[in-house]
Each structure stands twice: as structure tokens, then as C-alpha cells.
Amino acid sequence: MQSKVPAVLSDSEIESSLNELDQWSYDQDKKLLFKEFKFKGFLKTMSFVNAVAWEANRLMHHPDMEVGFSRALIQFTTHDAGGVTSNDFNAAKAIDALMS
To answer: How many CA atoms lie within 13 A of 78 on its CB side?
Structure first.
């Protein structure tokens, strides 16, 4: 049985939902939510990336990530839907919770 793909959010829904996140941004051209996280060193960065991977797997909604020595860029979009959905915001909120 295939799960239902959530609906793509409108620009106004996205702008409103961004207020519930901690400094995430929306790229309208690429249709994705993104945030760059900065850390003091490689081990802290990798610990965060591993926590993100665990959380994403729990939610079954996986981000694209770019990882450097002291930074991680996290990007969410719902590929099956062709844009940003409620799943992306739920996942971003879970990532924010890792930082609190």
C-alpha cells in the first residue's frame, strides 16, 4: 500500500509557517526549506549530522545535506510532491528541537 503524498503548500502558507521555525529560509526557485548550522569543530558538526540522520529516519523524511568541517546545510523538500509540504516543516521543527 502506497502512502499519500501531502499537498504542496502555497507561498502564503510557507511564509506563515516559517514564523514557527528558528531562522529557516525558503528558496522559491528551488522549492525548498534550508538552514545552515555552524559549529565549533568537526566532531560537533558530525554529531549534529548523525542526530539529524537519526531524526530524519524516525520521521521517514530525509533532507539533503552539505557537510563541512564546522557547518551543515540542511535542505528539505518533498520530492514526490514537487515542493514544500507540511512534512518539510515538521522535519525542520524536529531539527530545531535538536538544538534546544
So the answer is: 20
* CATH assignment of the domain containing 41: 3.30.1360.20
Q: Residue 39's Cα: distance from chain center in Å?
A: 17
Is residue 22 in a domain? no
**In this structure, what C-alpha cell is assigned to residue 53?**
540522520
Q: Cβ neighbours of residue 52 under 8 Å, at least 6 residues apart? A: 63, 65, 72, 74, 95, 98
Count CB neighbours of 65 within 10 A. 13
From CA 73, how far away is CA 58, in angstroms rounded? 20
Q: Which residue has the cell 516543516?
A: 89
Q: Model confidence over 2-46: pLDDT tens digits?
A: 568 899 999 999 999 999 999 999 999 999 999 999 999 999 999
DSSP state letter for 41: S
* Contact assessment for residue 93 and residue 19, using Cβ atoms and an 8 Å cutoff: no
